[in-house]
Design brief:
The structure holds 2 protein chains of 2 kinds.
Chain A (H helix, E strand, L loop, with lengths): L1 H21 L16 H4 L7 H19 L4 H20 L13 H4 L1 H24 L5 H25 L7
Helix pairs in contact in A: 1-3, 3-4, 4-6, 6-7
Chain B lengths: L1 H9 L1 H20 L1 H29 L1 H18 L11 E2 L10 E11 L7 E4 L12 E3 L4 E8 L4 E5 L7 E5 L2 E6 L9 E8 L9 E4 L10 E10 L5 E8 L8 E7 L2 H13 L1
Antiparallel strand pairs in B: 1-2, 2-3, 2-13, 3-6, 4-5, 4-13, 5-6, 7-8, 7-10, 8-9, 9-12, 10-11, 11-12
Helix pairs in contact in B: 2-3
The chains are: A mainly alpha, B alpha+beta.
């Protein structure tokens, strides 16, 4: 339990630092913007209670918002992300067969499941994020293109990160 | 109560979503100027739109009242109009130009009696010798020619309208000159006929008709446009029907044209007759 908390805290700090100090300055003409920090919410352990998950997601988003000067925007997107995560895991994963609180990471769940998981969750997050950033229905096509491009960028960054910390553990 | 609690805990994810999402939206809207502006804007638009609708209905319901008040106001304003007072003084519109000698002056007059449905129509205006009106002057309206001053007394003049069988005006269409007549089998106040235009000339429907230099009107005063052309059997001239620009039925104000040089012209022409 303690190990899980510590490893997640370290991951949180690392991802925040990367997002705020590095990825904030990276982007392809406002069209493709990476938001790698949501990986933290993606790989929280399966066994986490819903309320804690929402709370963590909300404060993760809020932390990013403080740096991005968009108070509430990322928090809203992360709340949606948490909800989608709960639904997705309920639909695709049997909870019973786990011991010592595993995480939905690439090394545990396998490539195919993870890329699907990452794509759906990232898309929902980015969709909320960009539509609420735009906050009007005109230019909806442009917003949708931004969402898709950014999703591709973020997912590829996630895969790179996951492969970098790949642990050979068979489920 | 227990059931409600069970329901809430069963779908806790959804309720948590609502709570946290609402909090983030409130944060978003209260702290970001663009989003706040958008929300205020759209809600204001919605409110404004509904008020507009209600106002439309209300204004329709009060239409009668509005009409009455407008009519009353109109009456008050009419009472204040200069035309409600019988006035002896007169405004003359004169153009001062040093390069050209003034030939025509215009005197504004109000039509106080008018007819269009007689065989020979006359108008009466509230200007007479006192205001410098003499017999034979041309009269125009803002749109086109009206007629010729026929009889004058001190305060009033009668005008032989264009709608008179003896009124003939020299008119110009496409450079060819004919005389404009009314009342030979045609008693429609909207139309007149143009005679003495040769049938080989190319006169088309819609061509503008102006006064020629041989009339008592300034050359180029508008009369109307060609409505119909017809060739008559055994006649070398065209029968041209002209739609008059002047609406004789609703004439309100007319201008009496004083040709300053006409006295000289007439006296010169009179000498020819003596010799």
């Amino acid at each position: 339990m303690g190990r899980v908390v510590i490893s997640n805290s370290i991951r949180f700090l690392l991802l925040m630092a990367i997002q705020v100090f590095l990825l904030k300055n990276i982007g392809y003409y406002n069209l493709s913007i990476p938001y790698l920090y949501i990986l933290f919410i993606l790989v929280l352990p399966f066994g986490i209670p819903n309320s804690l998950l929402f709370l963590l997601a909300f404060f993760t988003g809020l932390t990013i918002d403080f740096y991005y000067d968009s108070l509430g925007l990322n928090a809203a997107a992360c709340t949606i992300l948490a909800f989608v995560r709960i639904i997705f895991i309920n639909l695709t994963v049997q909870r019973d067969g786990f011991d010592n609180e595993p995480e939905p990471s690439l090394s545990i769940m396998g490539f195919q499941w993870f890329i699907f998981y990452a794509f759906i969750l990232t898309f929902s997050h980015h969709f909320i994020l960009f539509t609420f950033e735009n906050f009007k229905f005109s230019e909806f096509g442009y917003t949708l293109i931004r969402v898709l491009m950014s999703t591709l960028f973020t997912v590829s960054l996630m895969l790179i990160t996951e492969f970098a910390f790949f642990q050979k553990k068979v489920r | 109560m227990r059931n409600l609690w069970l329901f809430i805990s069963k779908y806790n994810a959804f309720f948590l979503l609502i709570i946290f999402f609402t909090i983030s939206l409130i944060l978003l809207i209260t702290n970001n100027s663009f989003q706040r502006a958008s929300v205020w804007n759209s809600s204001n638009q919605l409110v404004g739109r509904s008020y507009e609708r209600i106002n439309e209905i209300n204004s329709y319901l009060t239409l009668r009242k509005t009409n009455d008040s407008l009519a009353a106001e109109n009456a008050i304003l009419r009472n204040q109009l200069a035309t409600s007072f019988s006035s002896d003084s007169i405004k003359q519109i004169a153009v001062r130009d040093t390069t050209l000698k003034q030939q025509y002056t215009y005197t504004v007059a109000r039509v106080i009696n008018n007819s269009v449905h007689q065989k020979n129509n006359y108008l009466t205006i509230n200007r007479g010798t006192k205001h410098g009106i003499t017999k034979g002057m041309g009269v125009t309206s803002a749109k086109g020619i009206v007629g010729i001053v026929f009889n004058v007394n001190e305060n009033f003049s009668t005008i032989r309208s264009l709608l008179h069988s003896e009124t003939k005006v020299s008119a110009n269409v496409n450079g060819s000159i004919g005389s404009l007549v009314w009342g030979e089998g045609n008693y429609d106040p909207r139309f007149a006929y143009l005679k003495d235009i040769q049938s080989h000339l190319n006169i088309k429907k819609g061509n503008r008709v102006f006064t020629s230099e041989f009339s008592m009107f300034p050359q180029g005063t508008t009369i109307g446009y060609v409505a119909e052309t017809r060739t008559k059997e055994g006649d070398s001239s065209l029968d041209i029907k002209i739609k008059l620009d002047t609406d004789f039925a609703t004439l309100g104000y007319v201008y009496v044209i004083n040709n300053i040089l006409s006295a000289q012209q007439l006296s010169l022409e009179a000498q020819n007759k003596i010799e």
